[in-house]
Amino acid sequence: MKKIIVPILIGTLTLFTSCASDDINLDPHSAYTTIPSTLVTNAQKELSDYVNTCNVNENNFRLTMQYWQETTYVEESNYNFTNRNVSNQIYLDNYVNVLNSLVKAKELINAYQPVPSEVNDWPKIKQNQLAIVDILQVYTYQILVDTFGNIPYSQANQLGSNVAPAYDDGAGVYANLITRLQQDIANIDTGGGINSASDDFSSADKFYSGSLSGWKTFGNSLLLKLGIAIADSNPSLAQQTSATAINNGVMTSSSDDCKLQYLSGSPNWNPVYENVKASNRNDFVGGKPLIDYMNANNDSRISRYFKTVGTTGNYIGQAIGQPAAFANFSAPGNFAYTATTPGIIMNYTEVAFYLTEASARWGIGGSAAVNYANAITSSFTDWGATSDAAAYIVTHPYNPSNWKQSVGQQAWVAMYNQPLTSWNFWRRLDYPVLQPASAATISSVPVRMNYPASEYQTNGANVSAAASAIGGDLLTTKIFWDKQ
């Protein structure tokens, strides 16, 4: 990344921040003179915006996972991500908008001089703040590895001192993320504080409002996610990591969910609402694979996922890759037309599926069948259909002889509004069996994203070396953990 760009923050701690771009190498009045917590607020919102958006310029995984289909401009549905330079935006969203803010937040925390009245408390406060910031970094770096494979890591986000960072091996990055996350979790002192005399960190934390026990649970749940991801590529580390996470305490209900509560006004409304409703465009309808599956299996969540077509009372999805007349197919459900729909970072439904995998693979974390039922029930509850879960589970029981199909199929349905997570489940478990789009530019559904064109322009030697190391910079090149 040639230029290091950072967001300018405005607003107060009780509201989200809007941002523009600025070059701190040229601007001596950078927003980094602010307090750390405003940078954390900004990073959290930028992270949630990226993970949850359906904007075709930056996150097309609802299309890749065949949940939605574009109506008019179908290039992204057919895996043409180069016209809009989608990978450039993914780098900008994560390396610049999220990670640069977190790096600078750490610098400000480390540089802070406590006032006399807080000298004794500051070491624990500092430790807790740094642990939270680092957990957010771990989450973001995992997204980048899962998306591209090898990535800038050890030399990344050095804020101007290195404009051409080398790329690190994805497996090595994962191992390091596991180590640093375990240390972060250990560093959280739930008996300590989080606010300094000049910085109300709790109010600025839009995920857990400064709850240290909440961050500890999230950290362990993220550790479980890291462990499960490498189950096929490094089984011993995967089992050890997953067991540690489970023993230390992962999410046990939706009350532990990590979410960002969006607000009713711009620029703080849900990014799906921004692209579906506020844009005054009708760019998306339901995808035929998911709608057909839910229709065939009498899944009551379909009424929350989608709208019926006109007055027919029917749910109809369009074939993947084909244009669609908006009026003839099911639009996304009411959640997409609601500005305040929370943005999901991680939830109990996701974690319960990981527990199912841990049970199936290694016999840890409880009964696989119970965890599977908990995951499905949690999904139905998330969508306001708790009473329908038991009957659904009876007709879709856990199958120990092909647990990958059981988990993969049901996680695909449940992760409907968590497309990045769904993409990981599908690549790891190979279920459901998804066929490529009708006019696809490649012969299969993508298993990674290409490196950004901007990297070839400004960091060419390093990105070319990374492309060679992973076996080619292709949408069909599997990343290191996608082994089966």
TrEMBL record:
Q: Which Pfam families match?
A: SusD-like_2 (PF12771)
| Domain of life per record | Bacteria
What is the protein's given name?
SusD/RagB family nutrient-binding outer membrane lipoprotein
Q: What organism is this sequence from?
A: Chryseobacterium camelliae
